[in-house]
Amino acid sequence: LLFCFWVFFPFAFSCFIVVWWLTMGCGSSTPEAAPATGADNGHRRTPADDPAEIGKSNAIDRQLERDRQQDELKVKLLLLGAGESGKSTIFKQMRIIYGTPRSEDDLRMYGVVVRSNVVTAVRKLCQLLKSLDVESQLAGESAADPEDTMSPNEAYELLRAHLIDGNGPPLEEETNGGADWVGHSARAGLGPNNDAKLFLQLWRPIKILWESRTLKEVWQKRAQVNIIDGHKDYLQDVSRIASSSFKPTTQDILLARVKTTQVVMERYRIDGIEFEMYDVGGQRSERRKWLDCFDNVDAVLFVAALSEYDQKLAEARRTNRMIEALELFRSVCNNRAFSNSQTSIMLFLNKKDVFAEKILYSDIAAQPEFKDYAGPPRDFNHGVLYFIQRFKECLISDEQEFKDSFIHVTCATDTNNSKLIMVTD
Question: Choosing from 135, 148, 201, 257, which is the catalytic residue?
């Protein structure tokens, strides 16, 4: 009996322990899980079954729906056109009319750009004066201002030495007053800062040369070297721009030429509606970036400069700028991204003020590309109607017709004119 006890008791005891362990949940110290019910079909509960998690998920869905609805109400405007047509000027006008004021850092950057633009214009004028072989005319001229100690010819020789030949004598920086408010702006870039410094060293000879009779004649042929027409205002106000207290005005900023090399976007809220406006570079090398902006566009604002009918592209010297604008407009109108009825095409025939001045001495029909012009020379209205018709031929093709097409003759540097057009549209 003792032998049986010692043999079977350990075995029985072990069985008892195993049964107890299985019954108590494999030795777990946690409470026994609730029996499965028909509600979860026998599966364990997941975070998706948690009321708190469900509430969070619903809140996210509601926010996504609100964002989607707001995005549908947003108006996306895209500025397109060839380089130097005035797109960025319209972009800046929108900020003046509907956006926030410029910071002092912005103003300093534009101050450097304005001074740099003057140097660029004078450099091209000196090159043109030399190529036209009218340097001898300067020899017989006296300075317009009796207080100037330098003749127009001496001013030209000094400017040519520094701006073209690069062998001029050392110069000292001179502002028209005390410490210069504009100073240096890293945002403007190295080239513009260097030219702005040159401006402060050469502003007096620039003023003397600009006031000469010879340069007034050269200015009328500025199209040959693609000088920005609006920079005439800078050249007529050199003393103010050279002042130590110079701060760019709204008009200075509108006239300032800064090449657009990236897509720029600004948002505006007008009458409770959110607008997004995109500005892109117009030069041929920049147009590959346009495709990134073509999705979900509500309106395209295509800008073409009326005054460029007698000018050539900077990047393709044999191509007429107006012909380039017409071909570009045609390609935009026929682009599949804008072929739906939801996208409006608006045409801004810009620089009407420069056009009105230029046709007095540059005949439209004298340009080989527009020899079919049959209107009277030096007639603003006939000239405008001729170019409107040329663009209309691009606007309507055999395959499609845009329901909402607007044509405006504009002066982008005129804030009142721009505001009237934006309100009307």
Answer: 257
Residue 37 annotated to the active site: no
| Residue 102 contacts residue 253 (beta carbons within 8 Å) | yes
Concerning whether 217 is annotated as a catalytic residue, the answer is no
Alpha helices in 135-249 (DSSP H): 135-139, 152-160, 190-210, 213-219, 232-235, 238-242
Dihedral (CA of 24, 26, 28, 34) sign: negative
Active site residue 89: yes
Q: How many CA atoms lie within 13 A of 216 on its CB side?
A: 7
53 given a catalytic annotation: no
Rounded distance between C-alpha atoms, residue 161 and residue 141, angstroms:
20
404 is catalytic: no
Q: Which helix (H) or strand (E) holds 120?
A: helix 104-131
* Residue among 205, 152, 197 at smallest CA distance from 175: 197
Q: Any idea what the Cα angle at residue 331 is, between residues 307 and 342, rounded to 5°? A: 105
Spell out the per-residue pLDDT of the chain, length 425, in tens. Answer: 334 444 444 444 444 444 444 444 444 444 444 444 444 455 566 665 677 777 777 777 777 766 665 566 788 888 888 888 888 898 898 888 888 899 999 999 999 999 999 999 999 999 999 999 999 898 888 888 888 889 999 999 999 999 999 888 888 766 666 789 999 999 999 999 999 999 999 999 999 999 999 999 999 999 899 899 999 999 999 999 999 999 999 999 999 998 877 788 888 888 888 888 888 877 767 767 777 777 788 888 999 999 999 999 877 778 999 999 999 999 888 887 776 667 788 899 999 999 999 999 999 999 999 999 999 999 999 999 999 999 988 865 555 454 445 889 999 888 776 666 665 55
Active-site pick, 141, 195, 252, 279: 279
Element (H, E) at 91: helix 87-98
pTM of the model: 0.76
Q: Tokens representing 152? A: 């127009």
10 Å CB burial of residue 94 (0-12, 13-18, 19+) is buried
Kindly state the helix (H) or strand (E) to which residue 11 belongs, with its residue range: helix 2-23
Catalytic choice (175, 249, 250, 283): 283
